[in-house]
């Protein structure tokens, strides 16, 4: 508390976008695009699922993921909403 008063700022501020990713998540888009294009080079069709905001809809999101994972005719999912509550991991 005194540090904040003396320095004029809080040195322990939380940044919601500050995270450390495991190596397996680095370049994940490039890896997945490579996998997608290698899947069927002779097809001109890409099938995807679009989902909206999943923030705070935990049960529904879990049901959605289970449903999509049972399908084998989709290439990828586009998530068009918030994926976390208030920037929390």
Written overview of the protein:
The protein is α+β, with helices and mostly antiparallel strands and 89 residues long. It has one domain. Helices cover 35% and strands 9% of the residues. The protein has three helices and two strands. The chain has helices at residues 2-7, 28-39, 58-70; strands at residues 48-51, 76-79. The chain has a two-stranded parallel ribbon. The longest helix is centred in the C-terminal third of the chain and has 13 residues, at 58-70. The two termini are 26 Å apart. The mean pLDDT is 77.
Tally of discrete structural domains: 1
Which strand order does the major sheet show? 1-2
Protein structure class: alpha+beta
**Average of pLDDT:** 77
Please give the largest β-sheet: 2 strands, parallel
Helix/strand order: HHEHE
- Annotation field: number of helices: 3
Percent helix: 25-40%
Rg over alpha carbons: 20 Å
End-to-end distance: 26 Å
Spans with pLDDT under 50 lasting ≥5 residues? none
